[in-house]
Here is the input.
Amino acid sequence: MVTLAPVEPDPVRPAAGGRRSGTGRLAALLVSPTLLVLGLVVAYPILSAIRLSLFQRNDGIDPETGLRLAGDRFVGLDNFTDMFTGDTASRFLNALGNTTSFTVVAVSIEVVIGVLMALVMHRAFRGRALVRAAILVPWAVPTAIAGLLWRWIFQADGVANDLLPGPPVLWTTDGAQAWFAVVIADTWKTAPFIGLLVLAGLQVISSEIYEAARLDGAGPWRTFFSITLPLVKPTLLVAVLFRVLDTLRMFDLPYTLIGPGKNATDTVTVLAFEEAVKFGKYGPASAYAVVLFIYVALVAFVFVRLLGADVFGRSR
Amino acid sequence: MVSSRLTVPRAVLAAALVFGVAACGSDSGGGAAPPGPAALDGVGPISLVTGKDTSGNLQNQVDEWNSAHPDQKVTVIELPEDADAQRQQMVQNAQTGSATYGVLNLDVVWTAEFAANQWITQLPDAEFPLDKLLPETVETGKYFKHLYAVPITSDGGLLYYRKDLLDAAGLKPPTTWAEMAQDCAKVLPSNPGVSCYAGQFEKYEGLTVNFSEAVNSAGGSVVGDDGKPTLNTDGARKGLQFLVDGVKSGEIPQKARTFKEEEGRRAFQAGELLFHRQWPYQYAKASATDGSSTVAGKFAVAPLPGLDGPGASSLGGHNYAISAFTKNKKTALEFIKYSASEDQQRKNLEKTSQAPTWAGLYDDQALVAKFPYLTVLKKSIENARKRPAVVKYQEVSQAIQDAAYAAMSGATPVDQALQSLQGKLETLTK
Here is the structure.
């Protein structure tokens, strides 16, 4: 039997100037396969999408034969200017607004509910394992399937309308109710994710701190806001960052639950998908994707720099 | 996939290199080849690419062919049931120039796009018994007067109605929208829980079908014979007005705006609708006596009503075409001839109740006895209109859905919706 000794992580030694000259080259050699793979699956698609966003498919057909002109042409930044000033501007800006409003509202609700879930899961009581498992079920359901399940719930004669008083609400048509349907389904689906990460954060808080607080006479509210929240904040920020990035590229829920082409729920990714797959216009579609990429990168930057979300575990 | 599609001008190559991305595509997409039916040769195994075969008869057809042609075996490649997903996979296969797909089972509205992009091969008219097929269906396989696809199944909209309720009130099925409204006014008060009329009004291809039908049935058209949009006409306005007024007055129940085919079928089978615009497939399902349908034996079909008389359906159905990139085109051609033959179409109708394209089958007394809707269906198909045969069909359809959906929800007035649609279609069909 082979026993594997746990490998001690080699702490980064301060560069004391005694490094042998071959080390750097060896290190480069050792990480090069990783860099190569990253280059192939990360850098190449991004650069390729940027290049593609500068092209448009040749339009127009031969009036004699009806055949479509072949090839693509370089259009510079036209795809980008069209997005903000052209015919499709209203559609794009609307989608950008939806993407943003989904993110702000859904993630806010998810944070509140997720933290509550974590607090419940953290308490010791009979049946805790069952509660933990139950809370995590929605997170385990594939989003596209969840979208279809919620579509059944939100049908004209579905469960949601049965439970609600008054005339049936047409959730899956266009309008504010469709927007709410997506927020509800997204919250159901991903609040457990925040709950799970926050729970991990809660578990590392020493119980002594709580005892000390109790001895000092702090009530539950004071304890939560002065101890739990500050101590769990690093974990929570990372969870929120992940959720924000995730929601900014939301696709499956609006697409399966409400359907594409609805003003109230079209997100930028839905637009990009429709443009590329349905209309075969890869140029504008790539431009949408590039803008979204920049948007997501900016948000991530703000989170890491301004709010101090500790994604890389530097402070530990 | 995408980069191989690109023809990169030399000036841009430099830019591409700056990005560190080698333009790995060859110039395979460049230069339109001169049209004209190329010789279809190459014999050997091929594939038949089709949406999910819900009928269950396709494999029988293929097996019969395979046992007769052991050296030219046909393999069925099943794509998803959803039409958009089918089209997407066929397009991707074509864009990569892959020889995997042989015979393509195309929805009738895709012909123009596939032909204009030269993803499918032009077919020799003389090889097929086109004069024996319903002429309307043959038209759907043509693009710029050339044949690109051969109709295998057809589809036309029918008006399903509750015969029991109309009979009880002493009424005949309506031929105009006004008669339909009058019938509803007479029947509905004594039948609570039943709504007047529904079609497919969710925002998807079905709405394009229903909108076009309403416009055609009011004497208008979406796109004229010259390929130019004609939505600024009185017929178009009256057609859309019928749908909008229906929703406003409640003749079309609010929830019908969420109906695709299946939602509507469930409502009809639950006895919630007096009239229902639907495809022939509902006939068998609504006739089921296993308890899934409460209207079995209580309904019948009639041609769609219109503004001043019988309406005009949108034409549905599927055509077989040959992928431009497959090797064994001769075999593909022979297989299409085999599938379109009277014998195979008869078997297919008997097994699956799908509408055939062989005209003679509609007048076969034995078949009519078995499928009572055939006579009405033939009339529906003969009066049917094509949906716009344009290369950018997907974008045209999207624009139609935007306009019709906004008008039916009351967000946009009819005139404004049509005016903006006319403008969009003028750009798209330029």
